[in-house]
Structure formats: structure tokens, C-alpha cells
Write a structure and sequence with these properties.
alpha/beta, 4-stranded parallel β-sheet, two-stranded parallel ribbon, 51% helix
Length: 260
């Protein structure tokens, strides 16, 4: 679903043969059906990327099915756990890091030999604007998304001589299917959120999928090791100016619902 689903569909439109690896079997199957209905090629595989065996089997399945590997998109996140170092449990920390960060290490471990064999490759790691700017009460998310950028840069340096490019994408607020349900109930809250963006809109999954498709294409053949913010310009702004801007908006729209 969300960014992963949009990315699978977008890459399939470009002619990629797509393996959707997910714990959400229904969502993966729906995307496979959608891709095939439009003449594309896709399969689904139940995978928990928090497991080394799962990631290894994912890579091997793609190679055995189609004979090669060219693109890896690491998008998994376990969700949930908020809090600071005092409040966050070690179990939540370990699970979040395992799925959100260590899975990318595992994907490289098993995918890079096949990308080398192909003579080229593109790895895309999904970070966040929270990897560039941080907020309170989100130690796990801010830490792992920051680490994704560091991991991306190291791997880009490491595997560049093999013709493998590694980039990260840092999305802003993306209205996925789950998030849309929240905003449908509180449209005034979404309008408030949109005021924080120079483009005066938040993102949709296709915005990120399009950026991924570009970074995987030959048009991006000289781009590696980058953390590309796809955020409608949100991270460009001076914080105090945003505060003044939002204060004025609230004065004009006192009915605004605050999402946090």
C-alpha cells in the first residue's frame, strides 16, 4: 500500500518486472492484479524483512524467476512506537531498527552480488524529511531515518565502482490510503497541514514513486549517494517564519483541528 504500492505500479508501467515483497498479502495481491490488468508483469511474495532468511529468499526468488536483478527499493517500516529514550521500550527499538534499517543492510548483502553480475544496478532507500530535521517524542523514527541517509552514502561510495548507484528519498507528509481516512474525517486539519508547504499541498504516493522511477532510470545515471527531499519545499523554510504563517492561518480559521 502507500508508497510501496505506487512504486510497484509505476515501475511496472516503465516495463520493470516487479516482485512485491510484503507482509500484507491482500495489498500485495491487489497490486499484482492491477499491474497485470494493465499488461505489466508482477508477482507477490510474503516476506518479513525483519528476517534475514526472508530477505535472502526475496532476492533469490526474483533472480530465479526472471534471471537477473536490476533494482531494489527498500520501503519497509514497522510503524508505531513513539517516545523518548526513557519511554521507548527496547523491544520497540529493536523491532523498529530491524525492519526500518537492518533490512536495508540485509537487502544489500544479498542483492549486491546479483547487481554486480548484471554490471549495474540501482538501490533506493526510503528515508524521510525526519532524517534531515527532527522532532520530539520520536527517537526511533528520527534515528533510523537519519541512519538511512548515512547507510545510503556509504553504500554509494562502496558500490559505485561496480556500477551500482544508491540513493535515498526523503518524503514529506504523504497522504497514503491509511492517512487519507484520517483526513477525510478532518479536512480542516489537512488544510492546516498544507499551509506548511510552499506548494500549499501535501504529497501523494505517486509523487514518491515518480522520484524513484527517475532515480532508477538512465536519466539519473550520474546521480548517486543523494538524499532527495520530495517534500513540496517544506524543508526549505525558516522555522520562525512558518510559525508566524501558521499563527495567522489559525487566527483566520479558528475551527482548525490539530492532528497532534
Amino acid at each position: 500500500m502507500g508508497i510501496g504500492g505506487a512504486t510497484a505500479r509505476r515501475l511496472a508501467e516503465d516495463g520493470a518486472r516487479v516482485l512485491i515483497a510484503d507482509v500484507n498479502d491482500d495489498g500485495a495481491a491487489h497490486n499484482v492484479e492491477t499491474i497485470r490488468s494493465k499488461g505489466g508483469t508482477a508477482e507477490a511474495l510474503h516476506v518479513d524483512v525483519g528476517s534475514a532468511d526472508g530477505v535472502r529468499d526475496m532476492v533469490e526468488h526474483a533472480v530465479q524467476r526472471w534471471g537477473r536483478l536490476d533494482i531494489v527499493v527498500n520501503n519497509a517500516y514497522s510503524g508505531g512506537a513513539h517516545g523518548d529514550a526513557v519511554a521507548l521500550s527496547e523491544a520497540s527499538w529493536d523491532r523498529g531498527m530491524d525492519v526500518g534499517l537492518k533490512s536495508m543492510f540485509r537487502a544489500a548483502k544479498y542483492a549486491v552480488p546479483h547487481l554486480r553480475a548484471a554490471g549495474h544496478g540501482s538501490i533506493i532507500n526510503i528515508s524521510s524529511v525526519h532524517g534531515m530535521l527532527v522532532s520530539a517524542d520520536a527517537l526511533l523514527y528520527e534515528t533510523l531515518k537519519t541512519a538511512v541517509i548515512g547507510l545510503t552514502r556509504q553504500m554509494a561510495t562502496q558500490y559505485g565502482p561496480d556500477g551500482i548507484r544508491v540513493n535515498a528519498i526523503c518524503p514529506g507528509h504523504i497522504v497514503t490510503e491509511r492517512v487519507q481516512a484520517q483526513w477525510d474525517a478532518h479536512p480542516d486539519g489537512l488544510r492546516f497541514f498544507e499551509q506548511q508547504y510552499p506548494l500549499r499541498r501535501t504529497g501523494v504516493p505517486l509523487d514518491i514513486a515518480n522520484a524513484i522511477a527517475f532515480l532508477c532510470s538512465d536519466e539519473a545515471s550520474f546521480i548517486t549517494g543523494q538524499a532527495l527531499a520530495v517534500d513540496g519545499g517544506m524543508t526549505l523554510q525558516l522555522q520562525e517564519n512558518i510559525g508566524v504563517q501558521l499563527g495567522r492561518y489559525i487566527q483566520e480559521h479558528p475551527e482548525t483541528w490539530f492532528p497532534y
